[in-house]
């Protein structure tokens, strides 16, 4: 799964998504003071870091002063720390209490990964930003029609926003990223292999009989949340 994800992301298929994440992260991590010269860059945490693709871009865009890459997969953490210069990695279960101090992060990412709203609120300082990416119902719809990937609930963005709001966040900005992309046979296979569908669906034949979609729809919501002053 990780190899497929790294190869696909390196192909720039999801470049508009990482552009949106970096833009919202940069805006959301700006210090409140006009005098920013003496203010260090944000302390960045990526919850569910995968290969480190998104954290690497955001760390550069925000001039992050520190980067913590967190994932339940030791292989993912090793891969991600090689992608982000100077980063620290930690293997953890997102669903469990996180071994991080209260208010120890200024900026957090959660891209196509499980969420632990209460713990995210605890770890982020008041006023800190959380950038979340969730797929829309139409995301990879062409692959979903033939059963290659799992379905996405139509109200996923609302459910995610409500859960985070209840935990102490408020929506600061949102961006809807949607486009059609031409994909090769190999990229289609990677799109299936890089996500949870790889665990649930039977292995498919690699031969392309010409019926597989040549275009796929990429459709996600990129949400920026601000940690409220009090929980």
Brief digest:
By secondary structure, the chain is α/β, with parallel strands linked by helices. It has one domain (2-30, 40-200, 211-227): 3-Layer(aba) Sandwich (Rossmann fold), CATH 3.40.50. It contains 9 helices and 7 strands, in the order H-H-E-H-E-H-E-E-H-E-H-H-E-H-H-E.
Keywords:
single chain, 231 residues, alpha/beta, Rossmann fold, 26% strand
How would you portray this structure in words?
By secondary structure, the chain is α/β, with parallel strands linked by helices. The protein has a single domain (2-30, 40-200, 211-227), classed as Rossmann fold. The protein has 9 helices and 7 strands; from the N terminus they run H-H-E-H-E-H-E-E-H-E-H-H-E-H-H-E. It has helices spanning 2-10, 15-28, 53-62, 74-83, 117-123, 141-145, 156-167, 185-193, 197-200; strands at residues 43-47, 66-71, 88-91, 105-111, 124-135, 169-182, 215-227. It has a 7-stranded mixed β-sheet with strand order 3-2-1-4-5-7-6, sandwiched between helices. Strand 2, helix 4 and strand 3 (88-91) form a beta-alpha-beta unit. Helix 1 (2-10) crosses helix 8 (185-193) and helix 2 (15-28) crosses helix 3 (53-62). Mean pLDDT is 88; it is low at 32-36 and 199-207.
Side by side, the strands of the main sheet go 3-2-1-4-5-7-6
Based on the coordinates given, report the CATH architecture.
Answer: 3-Layer(aba) Sandwich
Number of contiguous helices = 9
By CATH's scheme, which homologous superfamily applies?
Vaccinia Virus protein VP39
User: Which fold does the CATH topology refer to?
Assistant: Rossmann fold
Strand content: 25-35%
Q: Which outline best applies? A: globular
H-E string: HHEHEHEEHEHHEHHE
Summarize the main sheet: 7 strands, mixed
Give unreliable regions as ranges.
32-36, 199-207
Oligomer: single chain
The CATH C-level name is Alpha Beta
Number of strands: 7
Distance between the termini: 37 Å
Radius of gyration: 18 Å
Average of pLDDT = 88
Give helix % range. Answer: 25-40%
Helix-and-strand structural type: alpha/beta
Return the domain count. 1
């Amino acid at each position: 799964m990780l190899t497929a994800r790294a190869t696909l992301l390196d192909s720039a298929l999801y470049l508009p998504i990482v552009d949106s994440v970096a833009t919202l992260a940069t805006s959301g991590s700006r210090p409140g003071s006009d005098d920013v010269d003496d203010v260090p860059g944000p302390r960045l945490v990526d919850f569910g870091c995968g290969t480190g693709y998104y954290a690497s871009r955001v760390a550069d865009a925000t001039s992050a002063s520190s980067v913590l890459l967190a994932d339940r997969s030791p292989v993912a953490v090793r891969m991600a720390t090689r992608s982000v210069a100077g980063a620290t990695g930690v293997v953890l279960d997102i669903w469990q209490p996180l071994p991080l101090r209260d208010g120890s992060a200024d900026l957090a990412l959660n891209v196509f990964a499980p969420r632990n709203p209460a713990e995210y609120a605890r770890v982020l300082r008041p006023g800190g930003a959380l950038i979340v990416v969730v797929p829309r119902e139409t995301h990879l719809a062409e692959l979903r029609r033939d059963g290659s990937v799992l379905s996405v609930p139509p109200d996923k963005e609302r459910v995610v926003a409500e859960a985070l709001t209840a935990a102490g966040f408020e929506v600061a900005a949102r961006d809807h990223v949607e486009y059609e992309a031409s994909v090769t046979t190999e990229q289609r296979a990677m799109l299936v292999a890089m996500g949870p569908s790889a665990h649930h669906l039977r292995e498919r034949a690699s031969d392309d009989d010409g019926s597989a979609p040549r275009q796929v729809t990429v459709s996600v919501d990129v949400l920026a949340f601000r940690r409220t002053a009090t929980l």
